Amino acid sequence: MSNPIQTTQTTTIEITMSQEQKEVLENAATIRSLSLSEYLLEVALKL
Q1: Residue 1 banded pLDDT, cuts 50, 70, 90
Q2: pTM of the entire structure?
Q3: Domain region containing 39
Q4: Which helix (H) or strand (E) segment is 36 a member of?
Q5: How many CB atoms lie within 10 A of CB 26?
Q6: Would you tell me how many other CB atoms lie within 10 Å of the CB of residue 39?
Q7: Within a domain: 12
Q8: Helix (H, G, I), strand (E, B) or coil at 14
Q9: What is the rounded CA–CA span in Å between residue 2 and residue 31?
């Protein structure tokens, strides 16, 4: 049995926010030892 080739698809999402909002999100991500994109994905999946 052969293994299927897995491909990764990406999508670019642009978010406009103030510098202060960005810093709050970056700090929250850092507290959880996540990158900003990982943190935003986690938050989105919990909605």
Answers
A1: low
A2: 0.70
A3: 18-47
A4: helix 36-46
A5: 13
A6: 19
A7: no
A8: coil
A9: 41
Position 25, amino acid: L
From first CA to last CA, the distance across the chain in angstroms is 39
Name which of 14, 19, 41, 2 is nearest 27 in CA terms.
Answer: 19
Residue 4 lies in a domain: no
Q: How many CA atoms lie within 13 A of 19 on its CB side?
A: 0
Q: Length of the chain, please?
A: 47
pLDDT top residue among 42 and 1: 42
Write out the two tokens for 22.
């960005």
Number of domains in the chain: 1
| Residue 25 covered by a domain | yes
Residue 44 is predicted with a pLDDT of: 92
Does the residue 13 lie in any domain?
Answer: no
